[in-house]
Design brief:
Blueprint: H1 10-17, H2 23-35, H3 37-51, H4 57-63, H5 71-79, H6 84-97, H7 100-131
Helix pairs in contact: 2-3, 5-7
């Protein structure tokens, strides 16, 4: 955890802008930004400076979220068909890095897959119910 209570560094404020911090840490920063106008000014200056075209590898990496798995990879992870290395990376990215964007994508995919499963089960039940009276056992020969 960072030492935001004494003096938040520029890297921490940029991580806040990129939503790369834990929820409690983001909440502490938001509280401090509400209470202390100088931090709002500093944050605005950092945002302007970053948006003027920072071209370091780290800035490009963070801005384009190059470490984040894409939705098909997250879906493979949810379905349990991701490669062991891929599954390990996604688990690390979610649990250790704590990427809130990927967690939101994962939550969305879970809801979508759950809805699809419910619809599939309902469709199967309707097919069975509609054909149950038409099926007769075959006579044994």
């Amino acid at each position: 955890m960072s030492d935001f209570a004494t003096n938040p560094g520029d890297d921490l404020l940029l991580a806040y802008l990129d939503e790369m911090l834990s929820v409690p840490e983001s909440a502490r920063i938001e509280q401090r930004l509400r209470e202390e106008p100088e931090y709002r000014v500093r944050l605005a200056a950092l945002l302007q400076q970053r948006d003027q075209g920072g071209h370091t590898v780290g800035e490009i990496w963070r801005r384009h979220r190059l470490s984040c798995p894409d939705r098909p990879a997250l879906e493979s992870f949810l379905r349990g068909v991701a490669s062991p290395a891929g599954a390990d990376y996604i688990q690390f990215h979610l649990d250790v890095v704590g990427c809130r964007l990927c967690q939101a994508n994962l939550d969305d995919l879970q809801r979508r897959l759950s809805d699809e499963d419910t619809q599939r089960q309902s469709r199967q039940r309707r097919f069975f119910d509609s054909s149950a009276g038409f099926l007769t056992p075959r006579p044994d020969k």
